[in-house]
Structure formats: structure tokens, C-alpha cells
Write a structure and sequence with these properties.
globular, two-stranded antiparallel ribbon, 127 residues, 5% helix, 11 strands, mainly beta, nine-stranded antiparallel beta sheet
Length: 127
Amino acid sequence: MGFFNFNSLIAFAILTSVPSVSLADRMIISDAALCGTSEETVLDAGGFIMSETTIEAIEFLCEFDQLPQLDLKEYQTLTRKGYCAGPMFLIPQVFAFRFGEDIGDIEMIGQFAQYVPSGRITFHVCE
């Protein structure tokens, strides 16, 4: 099945600090130390990039239906359909995004066999 065995992929997005956030306005990456650099630099460093429609890494891309501008005043959960693809696989996925004022950063949970043994990636919203 290629580099990854995706049985399921759940993405949890948790953003704080402002009442409403557009994912298009900020770079959201897996390594906060790379904030202020280019997307190419993040990917070359082995990082992950999240946007309002994708999660991208050097060896794969996940795409999902567009997320709306996020209203963070109250807790909510959104689901989106999509897929993940790599050099030798294309797998349909259901993505779940959770938002709320009381939690920081963005967490994505799934099986990332070779890159992340724990199956968890924390994303950071770059200011």
C-alpha cells in the first residue's frame, strides 16, 4: 500500500487567541521553529503543512472539502470528506476537525507508520 498504512485519518483542529480565524490567513505547520520560513523549507525539513483544504508532506498529500472561517467562541466539531495520496496509494478518508477556545494548536491523529510512530502530529498556527 506504499509508504503509509492509513486505516483512518482524523484531524483535530484547535485554534485559540482570536474569536474567528481564517486558515488562509496564516501558515499552519508541524514545527513552530519553522514559522517565518517558506513552505518549501518546512517540507524539506520533513514537516507537515495544513491549509483550509490540504495537509501536505514531502511524500504525500491529503485533500478535504474546504473548512469555513472558524468561529472559536464555542466548541464545535466539523467533518470533511477527502483522500490521502502518495507515490503508491490513494485512500479515501474522513477528517474530523475540533475547535474550541480552551485548547491550543492543531492536532492530527492517524497512522503515519514511517514518519510518526505515535500517530500524532501537532500543528502550530504561525502569526
